């Protein structure tokens, strides 16, 4: 990580800039890796009342003859109850992969199901849609591809009047969209984005949550940055999404989680984040962060961490945009309140979901990287010691904590004076003994910044047995040379 300098010590400005540049390169690589981590999944929507009524009924594996019989009864049964019952039995069977495979191999089966979906009898329509929903949840791509003839009808029904039916269609489309490029290819020219934009004005929370799911699946497609996200950004969807993320009594956790992930996928595509920023994404997310911090203090309600994760990611990534600087992004986030809220969330995540701690620390890193005011808030609120307590969580967390401390230290002598020695000295002695080379390297970078700006820190560190810890690492020779040069500079400067 360090290299021996020839011809003497470089000026202070160059040393700090080199450190900053190295950290930014690592952060850029990490951001790229994080963007590529997608949360592709499928949802299975089943009516609770039906589940209770059918409790004890085992999903049977049906052969061709039985499937044909159900389809025949559903089409030509003499009574509506008989027809509906046939579809109910078929739906139960389609919960088994073996029945799904048999069903799609049977000639005309999907055509018959689509015919029932488009019938003028609401109960038959609903049961046919439930059968398609079971098929859409399959992990077998052939089963999903077989549903292609039904997708245009599912899209049409999004403009219907039954919220339950619209919800079912949205979840089914979401399952099919994420699995099949052929489905996406068919739905895009048929107007799926305008259809979803119309749905977002629904007053029904169940429809909005299902819409958020379907949209998030669409936004995760590999072709999304070129073919999907520009259309989404050109629609009314972003403004409505931000409205649904506004803190207040109308904020619904399930809906907010889905649309926060939608926003995350759009931001990670980097298609036009400047547009989102001008539409108020930074201020909305900042207010939501404050609201979340208040909520975790008031309630033990499970699920708040599900919203915290995409909100933290969205803010982190938006703060790296040049447009955020242009509109005073840091200023919009109200320094001390955001830092305090972030630490409340860090404590909450430490208890509930430690694996999400890096998300909060990544945001803290981006806040402090170019903002002396956020670094001042960190010091004035006495948050250095709570930050140091996180060093024992994991190596990933340790690296991020040390990176944030580097951000503070590089702001100059006044900041280093507030950092050193305090509890930081003993913490650095501990991290230098870590076996993880990245933790050790980041510890050494922090030490170098402290020695650059606080020459007396070098002597204090060596006197506190720091040298013994450093001798276990090959960087010791470079560090000793650096310390000596700095001491000489301080003496003769």
TrEMBL record:
Native species: Balaenoptera musculus
Gene3D superfamilies cross-referenced by the UniProt entry: Leucine-rich Repeat Variant (1.25.10.10)
Residue stretches in coiled coil: none
Name of encoding gene: TMCO6
Domain of life (superkingdom): Eukaryota
Listed name of the protein: Transmembrane and coiled-coil domain-containing protein 6 isoform X1
Keyword annotations: Membrane, Transmembrane
Species classification: Eukaryota, Metazoa, Chordata, Craniata, Vertebrata
SUPFAM superfamilies: ARM repeat (SSF48371)
